[in-house]
Amino acid sequence: MRGFTMYRLLLGAALAATATSAFAADAVAPIVMDQELAQPHVSGYVEAYLGGLYVTAAGEHADGTTAGGTGRVNFPIDSRWNVQTDAFVDSLWAEGTNIYGYGGAVHGYWRDPSAFALGAFASVTGYGGDGFDDDLYSFSVGPEGQVYMGNVTVYGQVYYGQLRASGSSEHIDTWGGRGVVRYFAQDNLRFDGELGYSTTSVGPFDTNTFTGALQATYRFSGTAFSVFGRYQFERASISAFDVTENIHKYVIGVRASVGSDTLLDEDRNGATMDTGRPNLILPSLL
User: Fold this and answer.
1) For the chain, how are helix, strand and coil distributed in percent, rounded to 5?
2) Spatial CB neighbours of 152, under 8 Å, sequence gap ≥ 6
3) Closest CA to 130 of 90, 165, 92
4) For 118-135, how does the pLDDT look when each residue is reduced to its tens digit (9 = 90+)?
5) From CA 260, how far away is CA 47, in angstroms rounded?
6) What's the pTM value of the predicted model, to 2 decimals?
7) Mean pLDDT estimate for the chain
8) Is 36 helix (H, G, I), strand (E, B) or coil?
9) Could you identify which of 96, 179, 198, 203 might form a hypothetical disulfide with 13, taking C-beta atoms 3.0 to 4.6 angstroms apart as the criterion?
10) Would the CA dihedral through 189, 46, 130, 170 be positive or negative?
11) Can you say whether residue 264 is alpha, beta or left, with left for phi > 0 and alpha for psi between -120 and 50 degrees?
12) C-alpha distances in Å from residue 15, one per residue of 145, 157, 279
């Protein structure tokens, strides 16, 4: 694809950040959920977004348009055990070329809404678009957990993954992790900060990717609908060469939720897990 050097591989990075004691002290007191809402029940949401992409590498730059959507549903097994399923699609148009990714994830975890959640996840993503001759796909597996401190949620995830082509025994390995802090200024106003790191190995070469993101989400009181805006930055470099690539992605979107009254309720009792998504959709190696 013109404007990009090679396909890159990222599904998140960096271990979970921990909130400082001073920050926790400033957090508002935990919000008491309605007794009926606090009982285990099926809930979830669907969302769609539209935005743009800007890439710079080796003195060159390229622009693109991106769009996609996600659906997540949480199924409580009992008062503590949960299974969450995700489905997603992401598409990128740049310089007359379209590439896309689609797939899903499954999360299994134990959750105490007043304290923490701990579990594991597995995800798989397929890739296609202009110029693809092989059936490319990737998968990732790893542990994940959340800690709840009043109006703050700290989320950590680490993983191992591979990029493969159907019918081939060859693969590309990836290790990574990501940390997210969610701050609820109000029940229906949420701010996210995310940091991540991943390393992809191809023969003797490693591609290291750092990720940072900011997001704001607002849910209209008494409705199922939310709006959000997100900015995500990635910086990738090959360890053996002085080569770097910077990718900026910015999107706005809408969300419709079921089975929850507020964003905070959704976070503590609903579909609270997610997975990292690379800016360029496709795993790539510059």
Assistant:
1) 5, 65, 30
2) 19, 23, 24, 27, 181, 182, 183, 184
3) 92
4) 999 999 999 988 877 678
5) 15
6) 0.83
7) 85
8) helix
9) 198
10) positive
11) alpha
12) 11, 7, 19
